[in-house]
Amino acid sequence: MRRLISVLLENESGALSRVVGLFSQRGYNIESLTVAPTDDPTLSRMTIVTLGDERVIEQITKQLHKLVDVLKVSDITEGSHVEREIMLVKCRAATGEVRDELKRMSEIYRGQIVDATAELYTVQLVGTSDKLDAFLGTLSQLTELVEVVRSGVCGIARGERALHA
Amino acid sequence: MEMLSGAEMVVRALEDEGVEHIFGYPGGSVLDIYDALFENSKIEHVLVRHEQAAVHMADGYARSTGKVGAVLVTSGPGATNCITGIATAYMDSIPLVVLSGQVPTSLIGGDAFQEVDMIGISRPVVKHSFLCKTASEIPEAIKKAFYIAATGRPGPVVVDLPKDVQNPKEKFPYEYPKSVHMRSYNPSKTGHKGQIKRAVKMLAEAKQPVLYIGGGAVAANAAAQVQRLADLFSLPVTSTLMGLGAFPGTHSQFLGMLGMHGTYEANNAMHHADLILAVGARFDDRVTNHVAKFCPNAKLVHIDIDPASISKTVQVDVPIVGAADTVIEQMLEAVTELNLEIDNGQLADWWEQIEGWRARQCLEYAKSPSVIKPQQVIQSLYKATGGSAFVASDVGQHQMFAALYYPFAKPRQWINSGGLGTMGFGLPAAMGVQFAHPGAVVACVTGDGSIQMNIQELSTCLQYGIPVKIIALNNRALGMVKQWQKMFYGGRHSHSYMESLPDFVKLAESYGHVGIRVDDPAKLDEAMEYAFSLKDRLVFMDIAVDPDEHVYPMQIKFGGMNEMWLSKTERTQCDD
After folding, report:
1. Taking every annotated instance into account, which residue ranges of this chain make up the domain Thiamine pyrophosphate enzyme central (chain B) (predicted)?
2. What are the helix (H) ranges across A9-159?
3. Can you list the alpha helix ranges (DSSP code H) found in B253-409?
4. What is the pTM (predicted TM-score) of this model?
5. Contact (CB, 8 A) for B418 and B468
6. In chain B, which residues have pLDDT < 70?
7. What is the C-alpha to C-alpha distance for residues B421 and B429, in angstroms, rounded to an integer?
8. Buried b vs exposed e over B52-84: b needs ≥16 C-beta within 10 Å?
9. Strand pairing class (B564-565; B554-555)
10. Distance CA B344, CA B357 (A)
11. Edge-to-edge strand order for the sheet containing A32-37?
12. Do B430 and B443 touch, CB atoms closer than 8 A?
């Protein structure tokens, strides 16, 4: 079971290592982890994508909550939610044919070409992880992928549900 | 406002926190704090011989009093030597504050002399930790450290103090915070009312209930509440290794310890129960035996201050998050509120069944005229101390014998490393108990293996005149390892034999203590009484015990709770 867990925690040095340490120490899985300060700079918001059965997820949320730096924990996959990941792909674009096709593909996937040289295009794409995977699959058939960087998933619940301090 | 240096702030904050004893060892990066401590008359500093022992002493101090234990060590090796002690306290939820020196902030991360990332290395075994980067942070960090250590599910907290932050030449305004406010940490003691009502209704209806108590009942000082609940519902009570004493060991409703080396009656009562009320216990693997076969007919009600301990290993029916004392009070109130009729007569059949198991007398053992049995030593200790001593134990067979053969009357009387199982814990823990209770009778039950893991503290005992009585069950082997090798490894006793033991009597004497060697069963009681008559002396009793004795009962691996070896040749017949 893939789960998105949102964590609101004190924006203090060491807080991130406690979260990451918890996962490795207790043998939980991290698919991706994103973290950044919120509109309130004393707080950080984290989205963790993890895998596990119901009991494991329950333990993860309880153990996260037990960390002294953690204010709120929510499994946002329990309700409807929005999740996004950003990806930058640098790919070989040496011929006119490839360049044209790359441009078309980027448009279809609503991506943008954010850097271009004589040899290379860098495409930016935002979406769900599935969409990013699909785009990469298509691209890799078209040309050589030089470098891929993905942000990891960040997510938010739809509607009124929100994590507040 | 008073102006103090960082080093002075540390000492003053400890004073303001009411710390009377601190266990420690000086070194380069805490010299300023030690200098500030030099003329202090309010805090007694205990100079240990190894930092691990400092933490165990603070731990024994904390376990026996319920107060937060305090430790002060230097950076690098001073800090790393604390880790086993901190992990021991963490596993057993013992409140400690460990102050460690650190290299100056400008050198952190540069592989400086005696630098180690203490915050990082201790992270998996602390409840929380603080690194003070400026002197002004010290009062609040120490206040929070004590608060976090003592509240909620207690545990150890580390405060790392870089050398420059302690600088005696730079003074800052000092004020110790009166209270703590942390938006991310608000432990609650009271349980959910609805769940509590469900729980008492289930208790009133149960035909075969068992009250299963653990270390949480001790931590919450819930002995009185446990007793009232047990009385009201006429409940059979069993305890984990950590909970011993939270219900009187000699009480007729007490079935003894449960689990791997639990009694026949306790493990059978658990297995056949229709309702188990767990209070501050965590269904540890040393209790449940094979989880899939655990208590097949029982509904489970679980009271615990830590939500993460609930439904961790065993799914429970009624979870109640809260402190044991508060929640049981709430339960007793709910009984009145709901006008519950409690018919204790309905438990008559259940008690009859329990008495049947009890009649098996699983703790009986055959004495010998020529060799002392380890069980006999504990019984002799019980007699000599009238059952009222503090007993700190090391880890191994002797620990199980002490747990089974010394029925503890009161909580905090039994001091042992239950979760981590730390050999070397016993002597320093006993010393910590003695510092907290100067007039009390304190025994350290240990073995020839365990005692050698912190034996250097005999020197500390001499320095401070600590009259603990060391009861060493000497079987010239690592008894528990040897027992497992005999039972599960075809008797291949790989490296479990101690070939070159010191002469413990001479060793004790060389540290200025009294040593006594006992090997004649007929002289055991007399020697024990003599040892305890030397009230102001440390006595090391080196007692030669039967090297082939095993701890029984012992649960059979992958079985239910009721599947046990009762002796080397007898095992239970299981009806299901």
Report:
1. 196-330
2. 15-25, 54-66, 96-108, 129-142
3. 264-272, 285-288, 324-337, 348-358, 374-385, 397-405
4. 0.96
5. no
6. 574-576
7. 13
8. bbbbbbbbbbbbbbbbbbbbbbbbbebbbbbbb
9. antiparallel
10. 20
11. A32-37, A43-51, A2-10, A70-75
12. yes
Query: For residues B63 and B197, is the Cβ–Cβ distance under 8 A?
Result: no
pLDDT tens for each residue of B47-99:
999 999 999 999 999 999 999 999 999 999 999 999 999 999 999 999 999 99
Contact across the interface for B183 and A165, Cβ inside 8 Å: yes
CA-to-CA dists, residue B245 to B261, B302, B407, B545, angstroms: 17, 20, 8, 26
For all residues of chain A together, what is the average pLDDT?
Answer: 96
Interface check for A164 against chain B (CB to CB < 8 A): the answer is no
Q: What's the pLDDT score for residue B224?
A: 98
Amino acid A164: pLDDT: 85
A122, β-bridge pairs: A90, A115
How many interchain CB pairs under 8 A, A with B? Answer: 37
pLDDT confidence of residue B383: 98
Using the structure block, give the residue that is written with the tokens 């035909």: B207
Q: A25 touching B, CB under 8 A?
A: yes
Tell me the backbone φ, ψ of residue B555, rounded to 5 degrees: -65, 145
Instruction: Give the gyration radius of chain A's Cα atoms.
Output: 19
Residue B271, class by beta-carbon neighbours within 10 Å (0-12 exposed, 13-18 middle, 19+ buried)? buried
B527's tokens: 């020697």
Q: What are the tens digits of pLDDT across the range B241-284?
A: 999 999 999 999 999 999 999 999 999 999 999 999 999 999 99
Backbone angles phi, psi at B414, to 5 degrees: -105, 120
Contact B36, B165 (CB under 8 A): no
Closest-CA distance of chain A to residue B42, Å: 31
CA B159, CA B157: separation in Å to the nearest integer?
A: 7
Distance, CA of B179 to CA of B560 (rounded, Å): 48
Give A161's pLDDT tier (boundaries 50, 70, 90). Answer: very high
pLDDT (tens digit, 9 = 90+) per residue, A86-110? Answer: 999 999 999 999 999 999 999 999 9
Sign of CA dihedral B555, B558, B560, B563: negative
Residue B306 sits at the chain A interface (C-beta within 8 Å): yes
Reduce the DSSP state of residue B74 to 3 states and report it: coil
What residue type is B188 in one-letter code?
S
pLDDT, tens digit (0-9, with 9 covering 90-100), for B353-406:
999 999 999 999 999 999 999 999 999 999 999 999 999 999 999 999 999 999
Question: What is the pLDDT at residue B574?
Answer: 64
Task: In whole angstroms, give the CA distance from residue B218 to residue B67.
Answer: 12
Q: How far is residue B96's CA from residue B150's CA, in Å, rounded to a whole number? A: 8
